[in-house]
């Protein structure tokens, strides 16, 4: 996160805050359960994953996109939806501390990249980091390329300008 830095917006010409952390909100399933609006069950699994109704996992992770000319990175903190079949057998057969790599779909789209489908991302359910780092498996080509190769600060400004006027 860069503090107190602004950029000039490409849409309105006004200064907006230069953010390098984009954080998606809690998925509705979780907020409805915690507020009592939904009768579904929820079990906390590890540090960042929630088993909903014993049917699927919702897991927080971060997608990191390097910003080539700022020596910084754009952290997209988002949520994955992982089917029960994808993780249950892996959980049973895993030794303590071993990586449990599962694939799931993002709960939220990445609007700037105009994708019609939600990217598929892999994470290690046992990751010890502050937030498990997601590895993109399938996504639109532009997003995949930026995730692999990084973006310029110019592209970051394009992206933030767009997000400020959604
Ligand atoms: Zn603006």
Task: List the SSEs and their pairings.
Elements: E1 6-8, E2 15-17, E3 21-23, H1 28-34, E4 42-45, E5 49-52, E6 56-67, E7 72-83, H2 84-92, E8 101-106, E9 120-124, E10 135-138, H3 141-149, H4 153-164
Parallel strand pairs: 3-7
Antiparallel strand pairs: 1-2, 4-5, 5-6, 6-7, 7-8, 8-9, 9-10
The structure holds zinc ion (ZN).
How would you sum up this structure, described in words?
By secondary structure, the protein is of the alpha+beta class. A hairpin with a 4-residue loop joins strand 6 and strand 7. The protein has one domain (20-164). Helix content is 22%, strand content 34%. The model has no long low-confidence stretch (mean pLDDT 91). It is built from 4 helices and 10 strands; from the N terminus they run βββαββββαβββαα. Strands 3, 4, 5, 6, 7, 8, 9 and 10 form an 8-stranded mixed beta sheet that branches. The structure holds zinc ion. Zinc ion binds next to helix 4.
Short précis:
The chain is α+β, with helices and mostly antiparallel strands and 166 residues long. 22% of the residues lie in helices and 34% in strands.
| Helix/strand order, N-terminal first | EEEHEEEEHEEEHH
Distinct helical segment count: 4
Small molecules bound in the structure, each named once: zinc ion
Structural class: alpha+beta
User: pLDDT average, as an integer?
Assistant: 91
User: Which percent band covers the strand fraction?
Assistant: 25-35%
How many domains, in number, for the residues?
Answer: 1
- Number of DSSP strands? 10
What is the CA-based Rg, rounded?
Answer: 17 Å
What is the 3D shape? Answer: globular
